[in-house]
Amino acid sequence: MLPAYASLPEKAWFWLFRIFNVLVLLFLVSPLFAIVPLSFSADSFLVYPIRAFSLRWYEAFLTDGEWTRALMNSFIVAPAATLIATVLGTLASVGLASREFPAKSLLMGILVSPMVVPVVIVGVGAYLFFAPLGLTGSYLGLVLVHAALGVPFVVITVSATLAGFNTNLIRASASMGAGPLTTFMKVVMPLVAPGIISGALFAFATSFDEVVVTLFLAAPEQMTLPRQMFGGIKENISPAIAAAATILILFSVALLLTLEWLRGRAERMRTRKA
Amino acid sequence: MSETQSGDALVSFRGVQKSYDGESLIVKHLDLDIRRGEFLTLLGPSGSGKTTCLMMLAGFETPSHGEIWLDGKLLNRVPPHKRDIGMVFQNYALFPHMTVGENLAYPLKLRKLSAGEIAERVKKALGMVRLDALAHRYPGQLSGGQQQRVALARALVFEPKLVLMDEPLGALDKQLREHMQLEIKHIHERLGVTVVYVTHDQSEALTMSDRVAVFKDGIIQQIDTPNALYEAPSNAFVASFIGENNRLDGEVVSVDGEQCSVRLGDGSLVRAQRAGAEAARPTAMSIRPERVRLGALAAPCETRLSARLIEQIYLGDHVRLRLALGPTQGFMVKVPISDVDTAWQAGQTLDVGWMVKDLRALAPQDA
Ligand SMILES: Nc1ncnc2c1ncn2[C@@H]1O[C@H](COP(=O)(O)OP(=O)(O)O)[C@@H](O)[C@H]1O
Ligand SMILES: [Mg+2]
C-alpha cells in the first residue's frame, strides 16, 4: 500500500503503474475475449455485433463427425507426446546436471533446438525423413515429432529446478545404502517434481495447439483440433470454430489450474516450513 | 584380515594421491591407519585437502593413485552405497520432503528391516540426540542445532562401521557448537563407533579427538594425540597452527643429545629442547605463552632474558602481555591473574624466563 508520507509524484506513479499493468494484461488476453462471445452467436458468420444468442454452434461442434474426431485425435496425440517428452526430457536434464558430463553445452543446444528452429523446418524435415519410413500419415510419426517439440520445455524447467538441487542429498542417500535408481525415485524425483510438472504442462500445450507439423504429417484420420480449425477457417468460416476455441480455452485454463495446484503442493514439499 | 592392514586398523590409506585436473596434486601422499573405535580428526587450513580425503573414503571421489582399505576389503572399486559408511554433512543434507522420522527410517527401510524394528531403532536414535518429540516435524521446521542432531542420528541409526563428519558444526553459533562438540564426543564414547571428523578449528579438534592428523598442502604434518600435538609439535607449522605460539628464529650452534644451543638474531645464546633442529642449520623455536615466567617468578628458571613490556590486556582470569624480546615485537606471555604484579608498566624492562624443555627447536618451515 502507499505509505502516508508519499509525495504527489509518488502517488501519481503508484496509480500509473497499476493502470499500465492492467493494460498489459488486457493486451495479452484480449484475443480470447474477442472469440468467446462469438461462439454464443446465433448468426452464421463470425461477425460483431451479435444480434441473437444461441448454443447452436456448440451443438454443431459436438455432433459433427469431423470435429469430434479431431477432438479425440488431440486427446490421443498430446498426452502420448507429453509422456514421451517428459520422460526423455527429465532423464536428459538429470544427466546434464552431473558435474563431469562432457560436452554439456553442445548437448543442451541440440536438446533445445526444436524450440528455436522454425517449426516449418521441423515439419518439412520430419516429412522428408519419415516419408521413406512410412511414418507420414501415422499417429506414431505425429506423436514422435510433437514429443521432440515438447522436450526443450521439459529440459529447461527440470534443469532450472536441478540447478538449485543440493547434490549432498544424493550423496547422503548413497551413504545410507541407496543405489542410484532408488536415490532417483525417492530423493531426486519428489524434489524436482515441480519442474517436471511445469515442463509436462508446456509439452502438452505445445502438442495441443500444434498446426504446422500436423499439416505436413497428418492424414485426414490424424487431424487434430487446431489442424481442423485451421482447415475450417480456410474453407467455411463457421462459428463452430469459435465454439471449439472456447472449449479449448476452458480446457487449458482447467489444466493450468490443476497442474499449478499440483506444482504448488510439490513445491511446498520441497521447502517445507513451519 | 588382509595382509595389507594391521590388526587394529579399520581404515588404511596406502600411498593415496588425488588430483582433480591431472596436474596439481591436492592430496600428495597419504599413508594413514585409522584404528577401530577411535575418534580421528583431520585438521588443517581451508583448502588443505581434508574434504577430498573424506570424499575418497566415502567413495564420492576416486584416488588418482594408491589404495584405501576398510575392514580388510579394498575399497577402490566399491561404490559409495555398498560401503556402509555413515556421513554427516556440513549443511546436514536432510531430505526436506521427509519428516524427521522418515529421514531416520530411510536407511533402515533400505536394509529391509521389519516395521517394528524400524520404529524401535528410530525411537532409540531420536532419544540419543534428545529429539523424541520432533519425529513428525519436517527439517525445515527445525532450528540449525536440531537439524544437526537429526543428521547425526541418521548417520548412526543404521549402525555403520564408520562415520564421517565434514565440518558438521560449521554453521552453528559458538555456544551451540561447543555444546555439540561434547555431545558428539559422548555419543562416540557410548557407541564405540569409529569416527573420522574434519574441521579447521583447532580447539574443536583438541576437544573431541583421540588423535588429530594435521594437514597442510595435501600432506599430513603430524598425527598424534591432542596433548602431544600441543606439547610436542614436530614442526613450525604444527606449532603455530595448534594453539598459541611464540616463534624465535636462530641458528643451531651446537647439539648435545636432546638439547642444543641456538644463537638468536641479536647474538645472544639460548638452550633449547631439540625437536627436529640440526647442527649449523637455521631453526624456528617455539614456546607457548603460558610457559613463560615474568618478573620475580622468572628467577628460578633455567633460561633468563630481559624484555620490554609493550602492552597488557586484561582478560578476567588471566592477563596477556606483549613484549619486545630481541628482534621479536610480538612475544606473547599469558600470566594467571594471581601471578600478575600490579607494578608492571608499559615501557618497563622485565625479566623473562622459561625452562629449557619448554623451548622447542624445530626444523624451520614456512608456516
Ligand atoms: N571437485 C573438485 N574439482 C576441482 N578441484 C577441487 C574439487 N574439490 C576440491 N578441489 C580443490 O582441492 C583443494 C582442496 O580442497 P578440499 O579437499 O575441499 O580442502 P579442505 O576440505 O581442506 O578445505 C582446493 O584447492 C579445492 O579448490
Ligand atoms: Mg572442506
TrEMBL record, chain A:
Signal peptide positions (record): none
Listed transmembrane segments: 12-36, 71-94, 106-130, 142-166, 187-217, 237-262
InterPro entries membership: MetI-like (IPR000515), MetI-like_sf (IPR035906)
Entry GO CC: plasma membrane
Domain ABC transmembrane type-1 per the UniProt entry, residue ranges: 71-259
Membrane topology per record: Multi-pass membrane protein
Matching SUPFAM superfamilies: MetI-like (SSF161098)
Chief location category: membrane
CDD domains the record matches: TM_PBP2 (cd06261)
A GO biological-process term: transmembrane transport
Sequence similarity: Belongs to the binding-protein-dependent transport system permease family.
PANTHER family associated with the record: INNER MEMBRANE ABC TRANSPORTER PERMEASE PROTEIN YDCV
Protein name from the UniProt record: ABC transporter permease
Organism in which the protein naturally occurs: Crenobacter caeni
UniProtKB/TrEMBL annotation, chain B:
Biological process, per Gene Ontology: putrescine transport
Hydrolase recorded as keyword: no
Enzyme class (EC, first level): translocase
Keywords associated with the record: ATP-binding, Cell membrane, Membrane, Nucleotide-binding, Translocase, Transport
Coiled coil: none
Catalytic reaction list: ATP + H2O + polyamine-[polyamine-binding protein]Side 1 = ADP + phosphate + polyamineSide 2 + [polyamine-binding protein]Side 1
PROSITE patterns tied to this protein: ABC_TRANSPORTER_1 (PS00211), ABC_TRANSPORTER_2 (PS50893)
One GO cellular component term: ATP-binding cassette (ABC) transporter complex
GO molecular function: ABC-type polyamine transporter activity; ATP binding; ATP hydrolysis activity
Source taxon at top rank: Bacteria
Annotated EC: 7.6.2.11
Family to which the UniProt record says this protein belongs: Belongs to the ABC transporter superfamily. Spermidine/putrescine importer (TC 3.A.1.11.1) family.
Function description: Part of the ABC transporter complex PotABCD involved in spermidine/putrescine import. Responsible for energy coupling to the transport system.
Complexes and interactors: The complex is composed of two ATP-binding proteins (PotA), two transmembrane proteins (PotB and PotC) and a solute-binding protein (PotD).
Protein's recorded name: Spermidine/putrescine import ATP-binding protein PotA
Protein species of origin: Crenobacter caeni
Gene name, Swiss-Prot/TrEMBL: potA
